Amino acid sequence: MVAAIKRKTSMKYLLVLTLALAMPVFARAAETDKAAITRLEQEWPGAFVKKDTAKMLGMGTPDCWFTDSSGKIVALKSFVAEVKSGVYTVQSMHIDDLKVRVYGDSAVVFGLETEKSRYKGKDASGQYRFVDTWLKRNGQWLCAASGNTLVTPAKH
User: Fold this and answer.
1) Which of 145, 137, 58, 66 is nearest to 104 (CA)?
2) Does residue 65 have a pLDDT over 60?
């Protein structure tokens, strides 16, 4: 009986020790994922400015959706088609104030985008707050949804 109790206690200590040793590994993995998502968020502006539609499509899930500042929901494929056709053009864009939260194989990002752009011939420049949802599929982070809100028009 005493041996059985000692074995149970030893197993509990071994489990606690294993978990304690594994925690830094999980924390490093989350930091690596956070860095990867931050890098991807910073790659969006270049893709828009260069009209790199292949890059844009490759960064999203096949069923990725965007909600624009007017509240319209647009599929990534349609959004990219507008960039390709010149309906939406971006002269400059940069991302600031990123807050990345990783939850296993999903992540939520809040940020601030400042852009000089035109949409359907009209000035669309300004600052936009955005929320992106990322999913990790086969080791790759892909944007599954994005929404933005106009904060204030840019000063020209």
Assistant:
1) 137
2) yes
